[in-house]
Write a structure and sequence with these properties.
The chain has 705 residues and is α+β, with helices and mostly antiparallel strands. Among the domains are: 4-110, Roll (Ubiquitin-like (UB roll)), CATH 3.10.20.70; 125-376, Creatine Kinase, Chain A, domain 2; 382-448, no CATH class; 643-705, no CATH class. The strands form 4 sheets. Strands 7, 8, 9, 10, 11, 14, 15 and 16 form an 8-stranded mixed sheet that branches. Strands 1, 2, 3, 4, 5 and 6 form a 6-stranded mixed sheet that branches. Helix 19 (574-586) packs antiparallel against helix 20.
């Protein structure tokens, strides 16, 4: 009797190629192409592929510490996932694809296989006679295949025009129609691949869309389908000279891409065990599940947000991305949303995962948290409820904080305000709830970190445009950024960040030579920062920028003071603690400076606007250089992709004391060629070293190399 592979080949005699695919830890497809005959072999005995390929980094390299490569990089047997075998409609030739899963020689699943990790979690649900019903919503951008000059992505052209999409149009059917051919191919692909794609919608940013998969009770199959759907979307886009990106935050000024997961649990008879009470509050297993997610989500954060870019999506007021451990009925700003639904459709929506996360690990993490809640009978402690009524420009806001499950009211209040006061009301509610739960202990830190946003959306829009132009690093964009920020200030003279960012843009112009360095320009820059802090003395971003400016002026004491204020307000912002660490280095507090720079690198190894961690590593290199820890300098130097002139010169200074062998090293030759025409006295001055003798010796060294 013929097996599934033989039947498939009989049905497709003109098949030219088969792709055998498995998913690594980063959610990247890996595998091999083979002839159709190989499918028979794979279906009966399996294919061999190296186990280490599951734990490659995003660049496809073997990371240190796994032990797999050094142990001989052994093979494992890849078994075909039968229901994944299908024709690929986007291929120019008749090709097929299938998923594979790895086993060792004894038939045991490989521990690093994400499919196995999810499968092992699902077995624990079987023991409870429960089945998860799960369905993802996957957001993505269609972007131009051609990048901007600075390497950043750009929106696609509107079909038939030379204009790019710029407008934010949620649920815009016209934009869907513009890409009708693409969505037709995606729909066709989903049908052929057996993927239950239910709906496609236009999301809130230009060129951003969402595909929703229809729920079913096979979570492993759903993870397969989610992965294959993403691959289908990417390949379909290429047929229309576009790229599809699931990157968490491809555009700083627009919404990020999430992979929201809807979840319910059914018993052995198919009945939904998630229930709500008459007040629409979750009870029983439903409440346990939510409590488990709230309690253990931090433990799985690296699976939900797997890259530095992921955390640029998870910021306050950033298009509904969650930033707190919270849940709410019909609340898209919460970590867990409970949609309004019939009893059979009662479910939760987990809104944290990035669209570029591995769906197998995302599902496994969510379900592990739910299991923890159920088995440990975790309960929801508190609930905030309320209502908002609007009449013309006035608001009536009712808020109540109560304990669960007994409903005992801890605090309640009503607020009658005009719409312009909405931010102030929000802050007051947060303070009152914090006091009710924790007493006054957290209020001081809450106040320190508070930044009052502008309520003027026109001003906010110009602020975002100014920041975007600032990060293009060209003279033209620099000039445009100043215009944008002037308009932001005109629209709202109390927008503190607009003043601060204008100062930053002027500083960039002076540093990069876009603008002539004059006392007048420096005075304007400092006046803008003073104005920003006059408007909002609690804005840590303004204090950070002030620290940066003072550092560039060699005013290290004031740089330290501003950096310390910013750090006290927001001690986990990598940009804040990085400039504070830089100031500490210059003042001789090298060990503490290194500690802050190490933390900045750990929190955000690839800073905004960068493609590698070179900038962070270069700062650490300087710290260890000043600490005379040259072994650590060598270790950091090996990690740097594109060495900057400062790190190169300091490296030369280190090596010249030992031997001349360094002159044959690639890093030396490359730097010698790249930096030979630099104005070295100017560049060394920009190192901002608080040591005249060392500065003079480095200038002399540069002239003699």
């Amino acid at each position: 009797m013929k097996n599934f592979a033989e039947k498939f080949l009989d049905e497709n005699p003109d098949l030219e190629k088969v792709e055998f695919i498995y998913v690594d830890f980063n959610g990247i497809p890996r595998g091999k192409n083979a002839s159709p005959k190989t499918l028979i072999k794979a279906s009966k005995g399996g294919l061999k592929m190296p186990i280490s390929s599951y734990v490659l980094d995003v660049w496809g390299d073997n990371p240190k510490g796994t032990g797999l490569v050094m142990s001989g990089d052994g093979d494992a047997v890849c078994r075909v996932v039968e229901n994944s075998l299908a024709i690929t409609p986007w291929s120019s030739r008749k090709n097929a694809q299938c998923l594979v899963s790895m086993e060792d020689g004894n038939g045991n699943p490989i521990y690093a296989d994400p499919r196995h990790i999810l499968s092992s979690v699902l077995k624990r649900f079987e023991e409870l006679e429960l089945k998860p019903v799960i369905a993802p919503e996957m957001e993505f951008y269609l972007i131009d295949q051609k990048l901007q000059k600075n390497g950043h992505p750009q929106m696609p052209l509107i079909p038939g025009t030379n204009r790019r999409y710029e407008e934010v149009q949620l649920l815009n059917l016209n934009e869907m129609d513009d890409f009708e051919g693409f969505f037709d191919l995606v729909e066709k692909s989903a049908c052929l691949l057996g993927i239950p794609a239910e709906t496609a919608i236009k999301e809130c940013a230009p060129g951003q869309f969402e595909i929703n998969l229809l729920h079913h009770d096979d979570a492993l199959l759903m993870a397969d389908q989610a992965f294959l759907m993403k691959r289908s979307i990417k390949n379909s886009a290429k047929k229309f000279n576009l790229n599809a990106t699931f990157m968490a935050k491809p555009f700083s000024e627009h919404a990020g891409n999430g992979m929201h997961a809807h979840l319910s649990l059914v018993d052995k008879d198919g009945n939904n065990v998630f229930e709500i009470d008459k007040d629409k509050q979750p009870k029983g297993i439903f409440a346990n599940s939510i409590a488990g997610l709230l309690k253990t989500t931090p433990d799985f954060l690296s699976f939900y947000a797997p890259s530095a870019n992921s955390y640029r999506r998870l910021v306050h007021n950033a298009d509904h991305a969650p930033t707190t451990l919270s849940w709410g009925n019909e609340n898209r700003t919460s970590l867990i949303r409970l949609p309004e639904a019939s009893p059979s459709a009662t479910r939760l929506e987990f809104r944290l995962p990035s669209a570029d996360a591995n769906p197998y690990l995302v599902f496994a993490s969510i379900l592990s948290s739910v299991l923890s809640g159920i088995q440990n009978k975790y309960e929801l402690d508190y609930i905030v409820s309320g209502s908002i009524r609007a009449v013309e420009d006035r608001l009536r806001i009712s808020v109540e904080l109560s304990e669960t499950p007994d409903g005992n009211v801890i605090w309640s209040n009503k607020y009658d305000r005009v719409k312009e006061d909405i931010f102030d009301v929000q802050d007051e509610i947060v303070r009152k709830i914090t006091i009710a739960l924790l007493g006054g202990i957290e209020i001081s830190s809450l106040k320190r970190a508070h930044r009052k946003p502008t309520a003027n959306m026109t001003s906010y829009e110009f602020l975002l445009k100014g920041k975007d132009n600032h990060h293009k690093f060209t003279k033209e964009a620099n000039e445009e950024a100043i215009k944008n920020l002037d308009l932001a200030i005109t629209a709202d003279k109390n927008n503190a960040q607009a003043y601060a960012w204008k100062a930053c843009v002027i500083g960039q112009g002076l540093y990069r030579g876009f603008t002539e360095m004059t006392d007048e320009k420096m005075g304007e820059l400092l006046a803008l920062l003073d104005k920003a802090l006059e408007v909002d003395p609690n804005d840590f971003e303004c204090h950070r920028m002030q620290a940066e400016v003072y550092l560039s002026m060699h005013d290290f004491e004031n740089s330290k003071a501003s950096g310390q204020k910013a750090t006290n307000m927001n001690p986990n912002d990598p940009r804040v603690i990085s400039v504070y660490g830089e100031a500490l280095l210059r003042l001789g507090d090298v060990d503490r400076g290194i500690d802050y720079l190490e933390k900045a690198y750990e929190l955000d190894p690839v800073p905004q606007g960068q493609t590698t961690g070179d900038r962070r590593l270069a700062a650490l290199f300087l710290g260890y250089y000043l600490n005379n820890n040259f072994d650590k300098c060598n270790e950091i130097n090996d990690k740097i992709v594109n060495i900057d002139n400062r790190t190169w010169l300091l490296n030369v200074d280190i090596h010249k004391n030992f031997s001349k062998d360094y002159e044959e090293a690639n890093w030396f030759k490359k730097g010698l060629n790249e930096f030979k025409s630099l104005d070295w006295p100017l560049e060394v001055d920009r190192y901002h070293l608080n040591n005249e003798e060392k500065t003079k010796s480095l200038i002399e060294l540069a002239g003699n190399v």
